[in-house]
Amino acid sequence: MRDLMGMMKQAKELQTRMQEMQEKVAAIEVSGTAGGGLIEVTLSGKGDMKAVKIDPSLIKPDEAEILEDLLLAAHNDARAKLETKTAELAQEATGGLPLPPGMKLPF
Fold this sequence. Notes:
By secondary structure, the protein is of the alpha+beta class. It has one domain: Nucleoid-associated protein YbaB-like domain (Ybab, Chain: A, 2-Layer Sandwich), CATH 3.30.1310.10. It has helices spanning 2-27, 64-94, and strands spanning 29-34, 39-44, 49-54. Strands 1-2-3 form a three-stranded antiparallel sheet. Helix 1 packs antiparallel against helix 2 (64-94). The longest helix is centred in the C-terminal third of the chain and has 31 residues, at 64-94. It is rod-shaped. The protein starts with a helix and ends in a 13-residue tail after the last helix.
């Protein structure tokens, strides 16, 4: 019975840490760049695009396709950084507890 109570306490602590981690993730913002910093995209912790900055030198009507490609690259860079940051926070919240393969946090 003592083991069951200990497991319940650990589960409650993990639940609290996971909730704290989810709050931290929601509060973070990451930026990704492309084209040597000419394009910058900012994402929220949930992956929503919050801001786009475009260097004025790129705004030329005949180069729209290049601008589109750079925007996509900057968004992908920001998304990768967000996934890394989220994974770090999840690792911190679980105290190094290994999660099953393919399980992503936050839920």
